[in-house]
Amino acid sequence: MPPRLVSVAILIYWSIAAFWLLTWEVLPELSLGYPPDLRSISAASDDSTPVAWTIDVIDDPRHPEVRRTVGRATTASTRLPDRGVELTSLVVFDAGELLKRLPLASNPEVRLTISSAYRVDPKGNLQSFDMKVSTDDSDDGLFTVEGRLKGAMMHVTSKGMVSVLDRKMSFPYEPRGVVSDALRPFDRLPGLHVGQHWDTRMINPFTGAVDVVRVEVKRRGFIDWNGEAVSAFEVDQHAGPMTSKAWVRLDGVILRQEVPLPLLNMVLERAPDAASPNPAGEGIEAP
User: What is the spatial distance between Cα 54 and Cα 30, in angstroms, rounded to a whole number?
Assistant: First the structure.
């Protein structure tokens, strides 16, 4: 048996360690509530009108207020007969305009369209999704990605214009887990609190690769949106060395999303008028 003083010291050490573990790991999770999942996101989505977004580019990170508009996007939510939800998006931008200020870039006008549809069951589980990347000259699609839930596994199949781009993969699907693509604007992210963190799955619409993304609610501050200072949460999404950001109003409405690209940043800004026409001038359809 160790001396009494050593035993007391060990007891004090373990008490302090247990206190800090409880303080930093357990209590924050309990006090902050559950992070947003696909059920809460789909339930909070407004199915009355589509949401319009502008797609801007920041060429110089030192001057984020200087932007170029290169495209538009629209997101929508539709209630299904089985009480599930279909979340759709249509992203259209000029690839030539996007890259025109980069070294060795040419200036051809290439309108790139990325359409997607995610079908969520009444319990908040993603059942299937479809994405298609196309241009005005390729209605059949340059690249397509589809996912189908079978049991506890999500099976993903991607196809490109050449067979070398074709791939199949699968991953375990967590109940009510969020799966999305990097260029799809989310409409809402409800129930946020500073300090929350969780993992989601992010799909690259140009390769079909699926990455695990760590999401963190970093801080609460103000952003300039629609000519006003709006209180919003700043949310970081970490995928490897890349960090994208979103600014979410206190009621869960996403106002801005920033996606880093090589040598520039792409910004998706929510339009104040949710009833604005979509970028293609027509209704959003599943790919």
Answer: 37
